[in-house]
Amino acid sequence: MVTRRDFAGGETPTWCTGCGNFAILNGIKMALAEQEIAPHEILLVTGIGCGSKLPHYMHVNGFHTLHGRPVAVATGVRLANHGLRVMVVHGDGDGYGEGLSHFLNAARRNLNIVDLVQDNRVYGLTRGQYSPTSERGKRTPTTPAGAIEWPVNPLALAITAGATFVSRGYSGELEHLVWLIGEALQHPGYALVDVLQPCVTWNRNYAYDFYRERVYKLEEDAAYDPRDRTAAWERAHEWDERIPIGIFYRGELKPTYEEQVAALVSSCLVDRPLDREWILHVEELMQTFF
Ligand SMILES: Cc1ncc(C[n+]2csc(CCOP(=O)(O)OP(=O)(O)O)c2C)c(N)n1
Ligand code: SF4
Q1: Ligand 2 neighbourhood includes 122 CB (under 6 angstroms)
Q2: Cα(139)–Cα(277) distance, rounded to whole angstroms?
Q3: 208-238 confidence digits (pLDDT tens)
Q4: 21 within ligand 2 shell (Cβ under 6 A)
Q5: Closest CA to 243 of 273, 221, 217, 270
Q6: Which domains, ranges and CATH numbers included, belong to the chain?
Q7: Is 124 in the pocket of ligand 1 (CB under 6 A)?
Q8: 3-state helix, strand, coil in the chain (%, to 5)
Q9: Which of 60, 142, 163, 176 could bridge 158 with an S-S bond, Cβ 3.0-4.6 Å?
């Protein structure tokens, strides 16, 4: 039996007191335990940012990569070892700014990963610059007169790109978040979990007070059907007065990318014996870099 304590360990988090990432860290541990996924059975791939430090704070396989590139690295990991579960964890700057094309491509390819985005609507680590999900008019060190761009809508983008599991959680609703992450882990294919994550230091307008008054759960709306793609797209645009969380869209299952790569059908690449000739080719290639 896997328990939350199996993931205990690592360094002490350096996050600010009150940061929404603490709940996300707990939520991931709790969801993995509930799904009976042991630390050695999953890899957390992260980018660069406050939230991307997360794998350092638990006992799990972690791969801390480059800013905006964890989905690309996760793609390589899944091709090399599709027996290993992969969850990408990164901020909105990382996922929807620098990494936007990777996000859309993973969704349309139906790469079998969970993509969890800590959406604090700001660049936290680099001290509060505006991010792709910041509201228009937001004043930050890089937008002193207010942002002149309209924000991206990650849920609508994922639906449009063909994702079959599109969801949003809130770090102030831990039990709900654990359920969402669990559903995403069970989903065979690309699963987006956008998490509203208060950055209490650099984005105080979007702290707990703001969300507490507005957040509601889609599951409590009996008329809402997450199989309805048009309804999901519409609900993805609801913001301000009321903010929905939950599973926006759960579409018909499609073959995953990995299932369709002919070279992966017989077995995982990592389980195959190394071919001496190929090693020589790789060594030759490596020499060209020196
Ligand atoms: C290619 C590249 N560009 C810019 C940076 C500087 N940088 C580091 S983290 C970051 C933004 C982090 O914001 P986000 O991804 O939203 O994560 P958060 O810190 O809010 O968790 C930036 C711009 C970098 N490290 N690499
Ligand atoms: S700066 Fe914001 S996102 Fe980063 S640790 Fe502090 S509260 Fe969290």
Answers
A1: no
A2: 58
A3: 999 999 999 999 999 999 999 999 999 999 9
A4: yes
A5: 217
A6: 4-287 (3.40.50.970)
A7: yes
A8: 40, 15, 40
A9: 163
- Please, are residues 153 and 187 in contact by the beta-carbon 8 Å criterion? no
Which residue lies with its CA nearest to atom 2 of ligand 2?
199
Q: Which two tokens stand for residue 216?
A: 């509601």
| Per-residue pLDDT at 130 | 98
SS3 73: helix
Rg of the chain taking only CA atoms, in angstroms: 19
153 lines ligand 2 (CB under 6 A): no
39-79: pLDDT as tens digits: 999 999 999 999 999 999 999 999 999 999 999 999 999 99
Task: Check if the beta carbon of residue 211 is closer than 8 Å to that of residue 177.
Answer: no
- Dihedral sign of CA atoms 146, 198, 123, 203 in order: positive
Tokens of 225: 């059907």
